Amino acid sequence: MRRLRRISLWRVGAPLALLCAGLLFATSATNARGTDLRPSRNTTLAGLVEEQSRRSASLVRQHAALTQDIEKLQAQQGSIDPALAKQLKDLSDAVGTTPVTGPGLTVTLKDAPSEVVKENPDVDADWLVIHQQDIQAVVNALWAGGADAISIQNHRVISTTGIKCVGNSVVLHGVPYLPPYKITAIGDRRKLQKALDDSQYIENLQDYVVKFQLGYDVKNESSISMPAYEGTLDLQSATVPGFPRTPSTSPTVTGR
User: 99-230 maps to which CATH number?
Assistant: First the structure.
């Protein structure tokens, strides 16, 4: 009798449990309406980098706007001596805090295509991506070619600009960027191109461009409008000879 009763309860209970489970799944599907019930804010590194880049760009714009307000208020306090005004302009041009326009070149660097990565599983992954030293080599070659101004990802490069790799992104002025990387220079295009061609490091990079299809493209630009540098000019760690480090003074950058 006990065995028959146990079998009878199982026959009734099992369908009932399955029915409840089905109702639960149906309710969840209806409430979710085809979406993830536990969405992640950022599921990829690219998303995190883009979010941080947007936030940093917004802060830079706020800083630039506040700086302009300060300059206007200072100008309202009284007229500036013409000789001093010219000196300030010359220094601003040298530092990179004024926008410039002129002909030049744009160099674009890219990682190897995904299909190349899949086709070469035994190749060191470092050989298939653009590194900070690749960007630095292009920038140094362009300076050597007499560039009047340089920008990376449309951000002006000055004497205190640092480029470093963090994971598979490159950080510039504290902002992370993913490839492609665009390095733009204003100057004599023939001299700039010759400096790129004469660079031994870039010649070595070209080997990887041929072997693993790393992106390296040079484009002539008839007219480039380059923005001014909008960040801080204070040096927090380095010191300039002749300027003692004190809490009340901060050395000023006057050129590259």
Answer: 3.30.70.1880
